[in-house]
Design a protein that fits this description.
Layout (H helix, E strand, L loop, with lengths): L1 E4 L3 E7 L2 E6 L12 E10 L6 H18 L3 E6 L6 E10 L2 H18 L5 E9 L1
Antiparallel strand pairs: 1-2, 2-3, 4-6, 4-7, 5-6
Length: 129
């Protein structure tokens, strides 16, 4: 599980497809503001990796770069003990679904172009409102 604390709420990535958001309702700003949560699950193929140490090195570099480039929380959410596969979850929050989808799509595109050594086997973007 990974938790992200923001000024108004906690976002918890529990497992693939299971993301919870807990609001701090003491802030009056939140009572009239729509909140949309966008998540992306990316499955990476690590074909040239033959140890968990190599895998963790690659995944760690990706997990460090994505939040720096994009306004997302990231975590490795599945297949942690499998050499050849990594599953990374991204999540972001806002009030415009199109912007959030675009932001996650740009993160996937950036990963494809900047890490050609780590091909994306599959990805799925989900918008929760």
């Amino acid at each position: 599980m990974v938790a992200l604390l923001t000024q108004y709420f906690w976002i918890k990535i529990l497992s693939p497809g299971k993301i919870t958001c807990v609001l701090d309702l003491r802030h009056p700003f939140l009572h009239n503001t729509p909140m949309i949560i966008a998540s992306c699950l990316i499955t990476l193929e690590l074909e040239a990796v033959f140890s968990l140490k190599e895998k963790r090195s690659i995944v760690k570099s990706i997990l460090n770069r994505l939040p720096q480039k994009f306004n997302v929380a990231v975590a490795e959410v599945d297949q942690q003990d499998v050499w050849g596969t990594a599953v990374i979850g991204l999540v972001t929050v806002g009030n415009d679904a199109a912007h959030l989808h675009s932001q996650l799509q740009k993160a996937v595109t950036w990963l494809e172009s900047h890490r050609p050594d780590v091909p994306i086997a599959d990805y799925e973007i989900e918008i929760l409102s």
